[in-house]
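Tokens for chain A. Residues wanted.
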């Protein structure tokens, strides 16, 4: 049995017009898929396959959380995810794509949705991931605040050079005052 056999959806053998699959993904799944964005997490995936003539519409409903790196303190954090997605599939001669439709060889008659689930999970992660206020690593937060630059009246002020400003801003200020 392969790593992703439980993610195979039998299209050719569908007897009803609708089939539902419940799948769970965990740290082992993310380790096996070896994707760049997520290495740990746990989620449940409800997959619904609807046959529409010679095409199939596969819907994914994914809920859970993944472990990502906090952008502020660089510690790991749980990021809740909840997403849906739809994949159009049809049986054909060879693997391929036709617009937004994935073509699966009719002789095989199944599609493995493991990678598609991973892509939906990765797309559900916000661009910015930061711990809730007060939950970041205290040591890293102290170092960050010590070296941070603050903005005052549109000008960047660095605490280490208090009292001095960039001469370019002074020249611009003179132009504005005239």
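Reply:
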């Amino acid at each position: 049995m392969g790593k992703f056999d439980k993610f195979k959806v039998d299209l050719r053998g569908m007897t009803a017009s609708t089939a539902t699959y419940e799948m769970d993904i965990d740290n082992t799944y993310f380790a096996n898929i070896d994707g760049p964005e997520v290495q740990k997490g746990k989620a449940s995936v409800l997959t619904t396959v609807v046959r529409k003539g010679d095409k199939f519409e596969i819907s994914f409903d994914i809920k859970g959380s993944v472990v990502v790196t906090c952008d502020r303190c660089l510690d790991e954090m749980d990021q809740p995810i909840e997403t849906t997605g739809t994949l159009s599939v049809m049986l054909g001669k060879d693997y391929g794509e036709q617009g937004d439709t994935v073509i699966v060889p009719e002789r095989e008659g199944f599609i493995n949705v493991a990678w598609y689930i991973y892509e939906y999970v990765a797309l559900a992660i916000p661009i910015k991931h930061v711990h809730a206020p007060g939950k970041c690593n205290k040591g890293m937060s102290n170092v960050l605040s010590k070296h941070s630059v603050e903005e005052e009246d549109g000008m960047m002020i660095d605490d280490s050079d208090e009292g001095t400003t960039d001469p370019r801003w002074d020249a611009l200020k003179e132009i504005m005052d005239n």
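The longest strand covers residues 76-92. The chain is about 20% helix and 40% strand.
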